[in-house]
Amino acid sequence: MAEKKLHIVSFDIPFPPNYGGVIDVYYKIRALHSAGVGIILHCFHDQRDSAKELGSLCEEVHYYPRLTGISRHLSLTPYIVYSRISESLRERLLQDEFPILFEGLHTCFLMGDPAFRRRKKVYRESNIEHHYYFQLFKAASTLRDRAFFLMESMKLRQYQRNLRYADLMLVVSREDERYLKKRFPGNDILYLPSFHRDDRINSLPGRGNYLLYQGNLSVPENIRAVRYIIRQIYNDTLPELVVAGLNPPLSLVREIERHPNMRLEANPDEERMAGLIRDAQINLMVTMQATGLKLKLLNALFHGRHALVNPAMLAGTGLEPVCHIASTPQQFRDSISFLFEKEYTIEEIAQREKIVMENYSNKKNCKRLIDLLNL
To answer: Which class for 133: exposed (0-12), middle (13-18), buried (19 or more C-beta within 10 A)?
Structure first.
């Protein structure tokens, strides 16, 4: 059994690592395990099944069902927090004195509990949650969803004050670091980029014959981004656009089908998605939310050729030198026409490797995390 031990409280089961937040959690666990840290993992869940794969990386894995239902909405505590309250988790955490890493504001219901006053408590930020939910409110298409996202945003804004009990906050972008330092001037707040699956740049030189947009297509933010690309940027003169991701709604499927130079790849597995990213000529990424770190961006930079993004995609990342940036539909169209004919070179791969690995090396960031946790 490892002498260095850490509790990690995860908002979801982090396997398979196939969407934003759980990618950071899973590959952080993998890096810490490789460095000899004994991990006691606590997972909330409501749709994912228990994952035996986590047992090979953790000394213990515990699962807690989310307490969902209408009654969980009738509280001043945000639903994403209130549905993750667990007395059995509290009892387990009190059995020892190991540090606790809370993954996301979702899991922070014990942060201000007096019983944990002397424990080292670390908050891992992935988004400024009330900003994120406000953007979901703006992107939602139904009155019910808009009401939920707006109320949740208001609750999260108030609940955020509980972070003052954290001994350390670890944030994924410089933009979020600036926000939290202003909001909590007395707390230790440090920038630690997201963990991810790659240890080196795996991009291929040469040219591809399509553009790719990839993301979880059940998320309102991503649906909004795809519709912006379809309705504002794209026309029939541009090269083929492949839209790939999880669980696209029927309305989006039909909208893509109406365009002869677009096709949908629904629910590709990890290997297929990696191939789509690798073989594309341009990875096209748009977001309306300048919060957190978009892990699809890292995925594209580690595996793809040209990355064409809007400014919000890069906020606080420091990755501007390895991306092409466009702000308006016409700028996107001009950049697509230029980049589609431009071979991606070995020299560009080397330059990307140098810049990206400066801040986004799992090995470096794992060592820093272990030092910060005094393990």
So the answer is: buried
